Automatic annotation (TrEMBL):
<dbReference type="InterPro" id="IPR001647">
    <property type="entry name" value="HTH_TetR"/>
</dbReference>
<dbReference type="Pfam" id="PF00440">
    <property type="entry name" value="TetR_N"/>
</dbReference>
<feature type="region of interest" description="Disordered">
    <location>
        <begin position="1"/>
        <end position="21"/>
    </location>
</feature>
<feature type="DNA-binding region" description="H-T-H motif">
    <location>
        <begin position="43"/>
        <end position="62"/>
    </location>
</feature>
<keyword id="KW-0238">DNA-binding</keyword>
<dbReference type="GO" id="GO:0000976">
    <property type="term" value="F:transcription cis-regulatory region binding"/>
</dbReference>
<dbReference type="InterPro" id="IPR009057">
    <property type="entry name" value="Homeodomain-like_sf"/>
</dbReference>
<feature type="compositionally biased region" description="Basic and acidic residues">
    <location>
        <begin position="10"/>
        <end position="21"/>
    </location>
</feature>
<dbReference type="InterPro" id="IPR050109">
    <property type="entry name" value="HTH-type_TetR-like_transc_reg"/>
</dbReference>
<protein>
    <submittedName>
        <fullName>TetR/AcrR family transcriptional regulator</fullName>
    </submittedName>
</protein>
<dbReference type="GO" id="GO:0003700">
    <property type="term" value="F:DNA-binding transcription factor activity"/>
</dbReference>
<feature type="domain" description="HTH tetR-type">
    <location>
        <begin position="20"/>
        <end position="80"/>
    </location>
</feature>
Amino acid sequence: MTTSGTRAPVPREPRQERSRLTRERLVQSTMDALAHDGWAAATVAAVAERAGVSRGAAQHHFPTREALITAVLEQVFEEMTSTASGVLASLPDDEEDRVAAAVDRAVAIYTGTEFKAALQVWAAAASDPALRQLILPMEAKFARAAHQMTVAAIDPDNRYPDSHRIAQVTLDLARGLGLADTLSDDSRRRAQVVATWTEMVTAVIQVRSR
């Protein structure tokens, strides 16, 4: 309260900050719409309603659906790439634990909201050459980061000639588990598959290290 008894005005967020938050809300809402409701649900109007933003405000940030999808793709692949790259700093020293952590991380990447959103765009890109050209470089950058992370976790000292192939199979397996997870809760079977694959990779590495 002021000395005159009137309530002090509440400071308003700077316009630039409000604009940034609105943009982030629209991008996140688009990602959620893609992951949970599919490609058809990710229109500017539908996303604006989902985000609690007026259609005019949404179109100020993203005049077209293509602009919105591009922004979402950039964030999706940036987050997936950062996740893949950042895991190396926290891997355990024990060989079996390290392999388990690498497999778990690969599966987590492909079962997260970001992958589910990207999957919807991939499906649309199959019949849209312009969208395909947009997504391919981002996917390639992510794939390199994920592969490098998995190789470094499986074979940190570069001792095993098969580590690159094992890493690729691990990622292909993780992607398949991610696809299965889009249709139903596959967590119980997925845990069994992950445990079995971790045991197999560890056994191969132990044999090769003798």
